[in-house]
Specification:
The protein is an alpha/beta fold. Helices cover about 40% and strands about 10% of the residues. The N and C termini lie far apart (about 95 Å). Bound molecules: uridine-5'-diphosphate-xylopyranose (UDX).
Amino acid sequence: MNSELIHRNQTTSTQPTPTPRGKPSNLVKNSTAPFRYMLQKQRLVFVLVGIAIAALFFNAFPISSPSQEPIHGLIPDPVLASESTHGTRRVLYEENPEASRRSNVAGKVPLGVKGKSLRILVTGGAGFVGSHLVDRLIGRGDSVIVVDNFFTGRKENLVHHFGDPRFELIRHDVVEPILLEVDQIYHLACPASPVHYKFNPVKTIKTNVVGTLNMLGLAKRVGARFLLTSTSEVYGDPLQHPQVETYWGNVNPIGVRSCYDEGKRTAETLTMDYHRGLGIEVRIARIFNTYGPRMCIDDGRVVSNFVAQALRKEPLTVYGEFTMLELAEVVQETIDPNAKIEFRPNTEDDPHKRKPDISKAKQLLGWEPTVSLRKGLPLMVSDFRQRIFGEQKMGGAAAQ
Ligand SMILES: O=c1ccn([C@@H]2O[C@H](COP(=O)(O)OP(=O)(O)O[C@H]3OC[C@@H](O)[C@H](O)[C@H]3O)[C@@H](O)[C@H]2O)c(=O)[nH]1
């Protein structure tokens, strides 16, 4: 090759090979030689093309590092939610959403397509918790498919997304299989309040077992990451207080609540077996008693009951050993100081006390409640007020 570079190298050689244009001594002296060399024969163009090809290659096949996902590496540890908030949850992996996206898409989004949004399935997305999750996912730029049978979910919770091309809603019951091409699955579909899940217990356990199997099967087939929303009810009537994730619980397997308690425990088992046996990437979140706007008005759970009762001028029903008396008093303060309190016998198998130990969630996810009861309750009250009295208002009647 007739290259000046070769000549320069030859200056250090003990046995220089003569070349037709060999002038090594001049080249060493001339500090502009490398630039002249680059500019000759369109070499600069080739260098630039080379850089472009290398950049494309490394973009298309990024080197994944486990340190990108310190939290995910520790999952699947169950994560607890607190009983006193529905507020914004801070999750560390969201601080680096791009890293999170690239490292878990499992083939659904081509890895080289930078910034492409995820397609996410939310089962039970028309419900109270599900619809808030959908807001969050759409808000961060993802596409969402909601699957809901509307047993407890309501279209009204999602109506603000209708017409958005990134949003799709399918009326479907998860006990029947469905094939959807998605990157992630948030599996929330199941009635969560005791009055609803006890209404048809066989359907409840079927939803938890067959529905979860179907969604895990889908996750396996399309290579999606899977999250199961479990419940504090997996601890039954706990003998350990507060409850840590490693506690195995104290559940009555043949009681009136077991369709839900044991159903969710089985759903957790299936989730972990799909993870261990088939390598599905999974999460389990054990959600405690939660409240907020969009809850079913006649949901039957304690906060929604007290709020609806106080607004309707009915007595607040405190069951059992008066553990909810303090909550009833806060509801009185917030809505109606003259609201009456009525004591009723406890329902069967009602847990005596439950409280999550959230130290692990704090440490690993940076999550902790951010909305106090006295701040959160008014948000729910104004939502309930509007839904209970809204129609009367529109008809011109005095609502409150
Ligand atoms: O009107 C009421 C309703 C409920 N309660 C009491 O309030 C406490 C909480 O009961 P809820 O019916 O609100 O619900 P639970 O806490 O038993 O479970 C519910 O919330 C936690 C989730 O994990 C579960 O999925 C869900 O079933 C119980 O001690 C119950 O006896 C009342 O005192 N008055």
